Predict the 3D structure of the following.
Amino acid sequence: MSVLLTTILLASLPAISCPKYLPNTNVILDEDVYLTHEQNVSNLMRCYCEVVMSKERVCRENHDQPAECRERTNLWIRNNILSLMLARQYLTLPPVPVRNTRIISIDP
């Protein structure tokens, strides 16, 4: 029952969305512009610090149930930060083990 209630209350809160910034500037990029993995991580961290935390603070000030505000923030973290980290983990190939090869010459 509480999961259903939380889902309904979260649906009433607006979703958190963040702009894509040109690295090291305040210029907002179009949605069709792609960033490198490192730039994307930097952009998401900037978004978390500037947008997500401020929206959570405002939400806690304006709502009776601060747990819903925290849950919305956790949902943003799961959808953005954790999925990006997991995607990078699966894309990175493990290092190839080094094998020592020795050639032995046997004279007949």
